[in-house]
Amino acid sequence: MTDTPWSGDASSLVDAFRAGDRTPVEELEATLGAIAASDLNCFSNIYADRARAAAASADLSKPFGGVPAGIKELESVTGWPRTEASLVFRDRVAHYTTTNVRRLVERGGAVPIGQTTASEFGGLNVSVTKLNGVTHNPWRHNRTVGGSSSGSAAAVAGGLVSLATGGDGGGSIRIPAGYTGLLGMKGTFGRIPRSPNAFMRPNTVVLGNLARSVRDAARYYDVCSGYDPADPSSLPKHPGFEAGLGTHELAGKRVAIVPGLGGVTLEPGVEDHLRAEAAALIAATGMVAVDLEIEVPNLAAQWMMGNLATLMADLGDRWPGCASEMTDEVAAGLYMSQSLYNLRTAAVAEGLRVQANEAMAAAFAKVDFVISSTNPGPAFSAEAATSSDTTSFLDWAKSNAAALYAFRGFLFGTRLASVVAPKLPSALLAYVSRAFPDLVNMGGLTIISNIYGNPAVSIPAGTVDGLPVGMQVLARHHADELLFDVALSVERDRPWPLVAPRVATVPTAV
């Protein structure tokens, strides 16, 4: 009888099941015990009875047969709460299961054990909500996991489960992967269907998972990807990502190293560390470094504005009466969007998106890969409401009741003034972005691949100040298999810890 959850990757756990070294039931009980004893606060709901029934009848012939899996609480599972990590929907129950989860269970054979915590509505790259409290980084308690796939990253890096789902609309898989030493793959837009009930706007969200190994991520894509008619943006199924691992020639591929992609300022020590990691990758693969400047506009603020239209549709007539139940930052973002987003703002945003697409297309005409940092620095405070440790615009806006009412009054006045001065909101947004860079640094390194739709992967790249940092590698559209092989090269040349050292037991090789 095993006492602790598997410390290797999910693929090796399947091998252990098939060899008779462990059973799904034993693994599940060890997992449930570890979750109950954990101080990470990375699961919001556990469904032990359902999981026990699934483990007892697990089909070990399937790719993830019998593997306990965490499901990000922003995904829908029939009969489970569909809170979207918000008090607003704390009593809502899902009446459908997302295609991604259904395929993971039916095709993959995974055993869903419960919901992992997320940032509210997936709107921030932090790991704190009013509904669930603070999720902690297993590498160092009281440090963030990032977001929005917070609990999934903490659960996988924290040794609780070897597999958990994630979603990435502006970096929400890659950001927490970078902060927790995991592999975070964001495939080409449409690689995994977002159905059913998939919003088309703003065409940036992709689904995936948080993985301990390259083969786990590739296997997950094999299981969950492929066209679904309920998501017209979904892509045809790839012949086989896992089967193709290690078969693609990387020697001679051209790569540009742009540490602060999008103009994001990196914290001390991060750029030097990233350049050293990139140099090691280039030397190991025979790739060729190319000097290239890539100037893309930082679209974080404009993306936030447009993205909140889907949240408004979700909230319906609950808004603005539900504002007090929401995270202050999300509520403030909605108020801002109502006042600053108009036809002129939308036009500016579309112009910037075209500019970004053209810049990325020009870059990939010259290189095969772009390497940047995943995050500006190592994990910051777990209780931080934004990714900045300095006073932010939103800190000011919510500093006291008077400031908050003044802020809302100012925005209401702006909305009225924009009727006769339609350029005013865009001008104010540009000013606020310059004056309070925290608004545009949240996901500033990762969001360009959501806007452009190309694949990007965060690869564990050692530590800075004892905390993990990620090396982000971007590729052309539909070159997902090349990114898996780039990550595989790093994994073979400089293996990373599969779980955080503070919870590591006996290392299990991939």
Give a quick rundown of the structure.
The chain has helices spanning 10-19, 24-37, 48-56, 99-106, 150-157, 174-180, 214-224, 270-285, 300-315, 328-340, 343-364, 393-397, 401-417, 424-435, 438-441, 447-452, 480-493, and strands spanning 43-46, 68-72, 111-116, 128-129, 133-134, 164-168, 183-186, 206-211, 254-257, 288-289, 369-373, 456-464, 467-475. By secondary structure, it is an alpha+beta fold.
Question: What would you note in describing this structure?
Answer:
The structure is a single chain. Strand 9, helix 8 and strand 10 form a beta-alpha-beta unit. This protein is of the alpha+beta class and 510 residues long. It has an eight-stranded mixed beta sheet with strand order 6-8-7-12-13-11-9-10, with helices on both faces. A three-stranded mixed beta sheet has the order 1-3-2. The radius of gyration is 22 Å and the shape is globular. Residues 405-422 and 505-509 have low confidence and may be disordered. It has a domain at 10-247 and 478-493: Amidase signature (AS) domain (Amidase signature (AS) enzymes, Alpha-Beta Complex). The chain has 17 helices and 13 strands.
